[in-house]
Amino acid sequence: MDSTRPAIKTRNLTRKFGDFSAVDNISFEISKGEIFGFLGANGAGKTTAIRMLIGLLTPTSGEASVAGFDVFTEAEAIKNRIGYMSQKFSLYADLTVWENIRLYGGIYGLPMETVKAKADDLLKTLQLSDARDKRIGSLPLGWKQKLAFSVAVLHEPDIVFLDEPTGGVDPITRRQFWEQIYEVTEGGTTVFVTTHYMDEAEYCDRVSIMVDGVIEALDTPSGLKEEFKADNIEEVFIELARGADRSQN
């Protein structure tokens, strides 16, 4: 991907369901290698936005490009250039660790020799070599999470989308997961991560905060705290949510 071109660019991107605007005219640009946090409460529109960007949901209006491809006309090309991990981790519980890696390696079009080599490396890195032939369903939640992320970037995508990937895991495991994120961005991969954990905003290069389908704030974590005279991003979010409530009343 051209490093001078935004990894992701949206302009007035909108998705309606009937008269309800789940995502309402959002605009932003994300640079190559950036960790972009897409924050908001449950129901704020984060998942709808991410589904449009990865080519699973057609926008109602607006513009968007991902890895240089148009979301309206080149959705299939986008899918070949991205990785994706959801809160449910996207792994098959009844398959073994190796079978999951082999399956996704095939989906991503990697040669079997490459899949085998990458599997050996990632299992060693994750200290999961002894679990190679264990079924995913038998693994602790933290292991599933780390493995799912590794599988999502197995094909070295330009961009990896993480949709609330740390839901339900303990703070230590969440921190370890973010260490994995840092490692892939060092190689130039762009990370787009949705979360409702406000403390995770501190790990991002920039953060947007969504309230009721609208991006109410977008800046670096330090910039947001300075603008709202807050000690942390949670305080910023609470202030924005209160403002939205007041405007509706």
UniProtKB/TrEMBL annotation:
Outline the extent of the ABC transporter domain.
8-237
Give the domain of life.
Bacteria
The molecular function terms in GO held by this entry are: ATP binding; ATP hydrolysis activity
Kindly state which keywords UniProt assigns to this record, in alphabetical order: ATP-binding, Nucleotide-binding
- UniProt-listed Pfam families: ABC_tran
ATP-binding as a keyword? yes
**Is ATP-binding found in the keyword set?**
yes
* PANTHER family attached to this UniProt entry: ABC TRANSPORTER G FAMILY MEMBER 20 ISOFORM X1, ATP-BINDING CASSETTE, SUB-FAMILY H, MEMBER 1
Instruction: Give the protein name, as stated in the record.
Output: ABC-2 type transport system ATP-binding protein
Annotated source species? Fodinibius roseus
